[in-house]
Amino acid sequence: MNEHYFVVHDLIHDVAREVSLHECLTVDGSDLQKIFPSVRHVGIWTELVYNEQNIERSITFEEKQDQIQNNVILTSLESLMLVGVYDENFSTKFVKILDQLHYIRVLKISAMPFNAEILLSSVKKFIHLRYSELRFDSDLHKPLPDAICKLYHLQVLDVRHWRGLDDLPKGYE
Question: Model-level pTM?
């Protein structure tokens, strides 16, 4: 894989987080920061919570997810990134988050081992979506939904890491 990673000094990282505090929210294994109503970008990082070899339910992480799910920021969220593996309970709650999104422009889901059909059925209502990166790591064949063809603002559809994808939906150019 040709993925690039960068190392940032802790001080620079802390400054960047402080500057973006009112617009960006990171949910990971650490304490959940205050959720400001002006938040427009959310990143959910599961690597600190779930071990790739042994994905077990994490109640505390699900509580953080509930705080986001029950927050007004979802209706005006512009970007959502889900990075890492997760369990089925997390997947079920994440679908509820997707159901509340209205103006999402960037959507990145790095793994869809559970409820892929439900997650993909949510895509049709993201009419403002411009960039989407979807990864599916299962050996099962899962076609992309035809609704992707109706996302007229979609400029980038990254499915390079979608196993079992034979063709794009009919009507997609």
Answer: 0.78
